[in-house]
Design a protein that fits this description.
Elements: E1 5-8, E2 36-37, E3 40-41, E4 65-67, E5 83-86, E6 95-103, E7 108-111, E8 132-135, E9 147-150, E10 155-158, E11 169-170, E12 178-181, E13 194-195, E14 198-200, E15 203-205, E16 219-220, E17 225-226, E18 232-240, E19 243-245, E20 248-252, E21 255-264, E22 267-269, E23 272-276, E24 281-284, E25 294-295, E26 298-300, E27 303-305, E28 317-320, E29 326-328, E30 331-333, E31 340-343, H1 385-389, E32 398-400, E33 403-405, E34 414-420, E35 427-429, E36 432-436, E37 441-447, E38 455-457, E39 460-464, E40 471-473, E41 478-480, E42 483-485, E43 497-499, E44 508-510, E45 513-516, E46 524-526, E47 542-544, E48 547-550, H2 556-564, E49 574-575, E50 580-582, E51 587-590, H3 595-598, H4 614-619
Parallel strand pairs: 12-18, 13-18, 14-19, 15-20, 18-21, 19-22, 20-23, 21-24, 21-25, 22-26, 23-27, 24-28, 26-29, 27-30, 28-31, 29-32, 30-33, 31-34, 32-35, 33-36, 34-37, 35-38, 36-39, 37-40, 38-41, 39-42, 40-43, 41-44, 42-45, 43-46, 44-47, 45-48, 48-49
Antiparallel strand pairs: 1-10, 2-3, 2-11, 4-7, 5-6, 5-8, 6-7, 9-10, 16-17, 50-51
């Protein structure tokens, strides 16, 4: 083909990046998944996007078989080299799966590894959008900058961006560039960590994509990352008091930095993460059990943007089974999924099939039979919360003064800040979450399933879209002194406050300002009973001293108060203009005489006080 340049491998015994047997045995040899030209990751040849079809005579939950429209997949000679990129039935994740075979006439194909969820059409707004693509087939190579690898023939096809190849083409051989590793006694109670190492002012780039995905039981919540795996440019595995400062993580195929298993009192400060294929920063301790040694780390003043470019379900900062950390003054923007996630959600599946289930330390928790109550399928049942919580180590984290915007650009059902199954005592404090125009955004800040004991205080939520939901809570969590302003629903509006289901008793909802600029929005959305779960209602909380105002509907707040006061709540709450300084410019400080001040609501912080602090902002020349 005249438009392609062909290269052959010159490196005898080049590293095989197929890790842990994730791929079929036939996919071996000279294999890599990303290609670079200087500071640019080149796009693999990709076909036209399509929607998956309903499968005839097949289980709807089959994670390996899918139906495709006519001509979307052909019996190409190099079909065995192809991969399927898709958002599966659940829209908070993407998978990249090798194609095993295809019946072109029947329109049915199989992948060699399972997807996280069933290979079926996504729901909601994505049900009529292309969510599936085929990559790495020679017949699909049709634009400058694209490439295809035939690993069996050890042949690389590249259509150069500038018409001819140059000497700046980089083929990666590693997913993990540096690992700092102590002595890990995985089954035992104690590790011996490495201490007092510092990485400062270094650049890390051109790492390969770690090729895994699917229903393995080793994925961290919803397969947003993978447990204890070599998927990051730098990996700390068994460290204390180590420092990563002022480093640049760029142009790579997977995660930037991992803090795995035993990681305590480390500092990740003032770094720049950009154009990564996966998560920006991951803190991932041991699975549920008694070994709680990933904690007391600091992640501060990092600039994180344009991550998750290959694995779209990647949070910018992901804290899993890790506690007592300070996540502060980070600047997060332009992500395909959520901003910051603090989680410990587990499917207590002794078969090791459910999400995160193979991470469970059954010996620590007394074995399967002794803990049958932990294994309830519906984890929102709060009567077993205390039994699980002692094994959920993502507790007492402080997420404060982070600036988060323009997240949720590709996938759905995500948030600026998300907390779920994470243990008690987490504080979400004084963050500025704003300007997220995604139509698929779920809520700005969400406490999802199996989450209690979280305090959400003094945050500013401004100009976010999707369902224009401010807060979602499914448990006993406090929402105090926050500003929720000018949310802009383009789909059906769920409410500035939403309680889908769960038990809210013990929640405090006080001294918040809810400020709408659109008629017809809801103050509070309350779910009916879901399955056997009770409806979650505002009346179960201690709700009072809140302020409600809509510029386009003067009775908006009054109607809400009239409805709720007979339920014994909102006695001192009011409907009135809070008198912000300048909403359009994000200045939510109250003018003199504001009724919010009379309610005892403190002056909100200035948005200049969040995000990168001055020396770090100047370092990366980022406003």
């Amino acid at each position: 083909m005249g438009r392609q340049c062909v290269f052959r491998s010159q490196a005898e015994g080049a590293a095989d990046t197929i890790a842990n047997g994730s791929y079929a045995d036939g996919l071996c040899g000279w294999r890599f998944f990303t290609l670079y030209e200087q500071d640019c990751r080149l796009q693999r040849a990709r076909g036209k996007g399509f929607l998956l079809l309903k499968r005839p005579q097949s289980s709807p939950t089959d994670p390996r078989t899918f139906a495709f429209p006519k001509d979307a997949i052909r019996n190409w000679p190099d079909l065995a080299e192809a991969e399927l990129l898709l958002i599966p039935n659940r829209i908070w994740i993407s998978n990249i799966l090798p194609i095993m075979d295809a019946d072109e006439a029947a329109g049915i194909a199989r992948t060699s590894v399972p997807s996280t969820y069933s290979l079926a059409q996504p729901y909601g707004r994505m049900s009529d959008l292309p969510t599936t693509w085929v990559e790495n087939v020679l017949a699909l190579l049709d634009e400058p900058g694209e490439w295809v690898l035939d690993s069996r023939a050890e042949r690389l096809y590249l259509w150069p961006r500038s018409g001819k190849p140059n000497d700046q083409i980089v083929v990666p051989l590693l997913t993990e560039l540096i690992r700092v590793e102590g002595k890990i006694d995985y089954e035992g109670p104690h590790d011996t960590p490495v201490t007092h190492l510092t990485f400062r002012g270094l650049t890390f780039a051109h790492g390969d994509r770690f090729p895994w995905h699917g229903k393995t039981g080793w994925g961290l919540q919803h397969d947003w990352e993978r447990f204890d795996s070599p998927s990051a440019l730098i990996r700390l595995r068994g460290t204390e008091t180590c420092v990563v400062e002022g480093c640049h993580f760029a142009t790579s195929g997977c995660t930037g930095l991992r803090l795995d298993l035993h990681c305590r009192k480390n500092r990740v400060v003032g770094n720049h993460f950009e154009h990564l294929g996966g998560v920006g920063i991951l803190l991932a301790g041991y699975g549920p059990g008694t070994k709680d040694v990933n904690r007391q780390n600091e992640v501060a003043n990092n600039l994180i943007h344009h991550i998750g470019e290959l694995y779209w379900g990647s949070p910018a900062i992901f804290v899993w089974q890790s506690g007592e950390n300070r996540i502060a003054h980070n600047q997060v923007h332009d992500t395909p999924y959520a901003g910051i996630c603090v989680t410990g959600r587990i499917m207590w599946d002794p078969q090791g099939v459910g999400e995160c289930s193979r991470t469970i330390r059954w010996r620590d928790v007394g074995g399967v039979e002794a803990n049958h109550a932990l294994m309830v399928a519906d984890i929102e049942k709060s009567q077993t919360w205390r039994q699980r919580e002692k094994y959920l180590h993502a507790r007492r984290n402080t997420v404060e003064r982070n600036d988060i915007h323009d997240v949720m650009q590709v996938t759905g059902d995500g948030n600026c800040i998300y907390v779920s199954g994470a243990g008690t005592g987490n504080r979400i404090l004084e963050n500025y979450c704003h300007d997220c125009p995604s139509m698929n955004m779920h809520a700005v800040i969400r406490c999802d399933g199996d989450q209690h004991g979280t305090s959400i205080e003094r945050n500013i939520l401004h100009r976010c879209y999707g369902s224009a939901t401010g807060f979602v809570s499914k448990g006993a969590n406090d929402i105090v002194e926050n500003i929720v302003a000018d949310l802009r629903n383009e789909t059906s509006h769920r409410g500035y406050l939403v309680f889908p289901f769960g038990r809210l008793a013990g929640s405090t909802i006080q001294r918040n300002v809810f400020y709408s600029r659109k008629k017809g929005q809801l103050v509070c959305g309350e779910g009916g009973a879901r399955y056997e779960f009770p409806a979650a209602l505002l009346r179960a909380t201690d709700a009072d001293y809140n302020l409600y105002f809509c510029t386009e509907d003067p009775d908006w707040g009054a109607r809400h108060l009239q409805k709720e006061r007979p339920n014994g709540i909102e006695e001192h709450s009011i409907s009135a203009d809070p008198l912000f300084n300048d909403v359009d410019k994000g200045d939510f400080r109250f003018r003199s005489g504001s009724p919010a001040l009379k309610l005892g609501i403190k002056q909100p912080l200035s948005i200049d006080e969040v995000g990168l602090q001055t020396p770090y902002r100047e370092r990366w020349n980022h406003k």
